[in-house]
Write a structure and sequence with these properties.
- The chain is an all-alpha fold.
- The chain has two domains: 47 residues, no CATH class; 214 residues, MetI-like fold.
- Helix content is 82%, strand content 0%.
- The protein is globular and about 75 Å long.
- The two termini are 44 Å apart.
- 28% of the residues are buried.
- About 5% of the residues have low confidence.
Amino acid sequence: MEVVRKVLSVQRRLLDRTSSAPPEDLGDDLANDLGRPIAGPRNRRAFWATPAAYLVPPVVAMAILVAVWEVWLRIANVPVYILPLPSVVALRLAEDIGFFARHGGITLLEALGGFAVGAAVAMVGATLMAHSRFLERSLLPIAVLVKVTPVVAVAPLFVIWFGFGSLPKIFIAALITFFPVLVNAMTGLRAVDPGALDYFRSLSSSRKEIYLKLRLPGALPYLFAAFRISIPLSVIGAVVGEWFSGDRGLGSVIIVAHSNLDMPTLFSAIITLAFLGITLTLLTFYFERKILFWHSSAIVP
């Protein structure tokens, strides 16, 4: 009887408030009257704005993929030198985690060094080309030539020119990250609000002031979009460099494991590389949200 009275009371309140109350409020009142939560649109939106909404779906998908991989290999009885079991790879990675962490750290430093060099050169070139059409027409074809040249083809040359240390790997990583930053930076530096530009000029602002206070802040969304592409590419560039000149780093680990048909070690190195790429990408998103809190791209829908 108590439940019936509650339901009748809710029906009367719904009839009284249908014309004025939004659906979310009615759902909340119904939940309060019946003593249990109701998942409405507001609750769903709140969930998708939480970190769990970004972590749970890929983790579940990866777990299903690994489980299917493990079961299929056990049923098909595939040899380990062709494709290892995920459990074997996990055991190899866990047994020698220090080995992969040490070589992963070397690759990470080379990748970050290459990204820093490539981004710095790209910013200088983009600044020059954004202020001069003549320089753009002169330098952009050279940048396109660098872009379309396969990195694998020039990597042996870098080894001959710069030796077998970390320098050629840094330059290869810089080469592969240069073009995306250049194009996005040049586009962002030119995407200036004409009204704001006229306002700065009316105040007799110098080119330096316009660049630092108007052009560069406006170009930050374009730059971070380029960074999301370039930072994982820098890891690829460092690994390619280690293939030709590496006695250390994950690239050399992959080459040696491939020569020995040591698939568990090879897959462990690949997993370490994937971890580095994912971590760098997440850090890029984090700093983008912190720095571009004022921009629409940093607002969670």
